[in-house]
Design goal:
Blueprint lengths: L10 H7 L4 H12 L3 H19 L4 H7 L5 H12 L3 H6 L24 E6 L2 E11 L3 H16 L8 H13 L4 E9 L2 E9 L10 E5 L2 E9 L4 H17 L3 E3 L3 E6 L11 E10 L1
Antiparallel strand pairs: 1-6, 2-4, 2-5, 3-4, 3-8, 6-9, 7-9, 8-9
């Protein structure tokens, strides 16, 4: 990315360079650095643009095109958001420049709390549920909001007088919708599909719900204990920062992952049980 900052860089292309799927590359990059791919590239470009503004050798209109903005106005707005001042103000007070240097990622395999997991072969299965698209950049904020929305609409109150809602609530009960959260790479830059789901046993699919087929594969299933969503987000982070980099036996096998949620206990309890499943294969 550093060698091609002024080019049209995509996550797909960058992922191919490091021989990993775009889904897991974007997810892992966000978890390990705190930045999405697009955010990192944008910040690096705006820092370099700031250096050029200070040098005084380039016009703002030329910088806009050079750093990927359609108009000088859009460049100026992005510049001001990043540096906290306009290009003209930065030129007068260069000490206000916001520094954003290339990231150096260090993978540290920590001791202490051991990650509990088991590897299990499972056949293909169909799941039914509610679908949304979420961004890799904001998934830790967007997905809890999506769960809350579904709970408000279908887990509170009675469906009397609303046949559509009554049918959906019946399917939710029969299929235990909410037992799983399924994240699937949608092959779109920066986004994936996510379903609040349960096992589909056949029959009518109500409007507003989707059915997906999860392929047969080997799953590494990581145990998680603690209140939601913090506990499962913490396990996800540890998978990318500790388990995957230090694993000599398994590697990622497919562009999806599954969250499992127990139907026992309160999701806010310290002993609430859940799990993260990722598809793996032998190296």
């Amino acid at each position: 990315m550093e060698e091609n900052l002024l080019q049209d860089i995509s996550a797909e292309e960058t992922a191919r360079k490091v021989n990993i799927s775009s889904f897991y590359f974007q997810r892992g990059f966000k978890i390990m650095t705190g930045y999405s791919i697009s955010e990192y590239i944008r910040n690096r470009r705006l820092y370099l643009a700031g250096l050029e503004v200070i040098s005084g050798r380039v016009k703002v209109i030329d910088l806009a095109g050079k750093y990927g903005y359609d108009t000088p106005e859009s460049f100026a707005k992005a510049f001001a958001r990043f540096h906290g001042c306009s290009p003209m103000q930065l030129k007068e007070k260069p000490f206000q420049i916001k520094t954003f240097l290339p990231l150096t990622i260090e993978v540290i395999i920590r001791g202490g709390a051991k990650m509990e997991f088991q590897v299990e072969q499972r056949e293909s299965v169909k799941m039914i549920g509610f679908e949304t698209q979420c961004s890799f950049e904001n998934s830790y904020q967007e997905l809890p909001e999506f769960w809350a929305k579904i709970r408000r609409e279908y887990c509170q109150g009675e469906p009397e007088g609303n046949p559509g809602k009554e049918e959906i609530m019946q399917i939710m009960k029969e299929c235990a919708v909410g037992e799983y959260g399924v994240c699937i790479d949608d092959r779109k830059e920066g986004v994936c599909r996510y379903l609040i789901a349960g096992i589909y046993w056949g029959g009518n699919v109500p409007e507003g719900m989707k059915v997906v087929e999860i392929p047969a594969c080997v799953w590494a299933k990581f145990k998680c204990t603690g209140p939601m969503p913090e506990a499962i987000q913490k396990v996800n982070t540890r998978i990318y920062k500790e388990w995957l980099p230090g694993n000599t036996e398994y590697e990622l096998a497919d562009d999806l992952n599954i969250e499992w949620y127990s139907n026992q206990g309160d999701v806010t309890d310290d002993d609430y049980e859940s799990a993260v499943w990722i598809p793996v294969k032998k190296k």
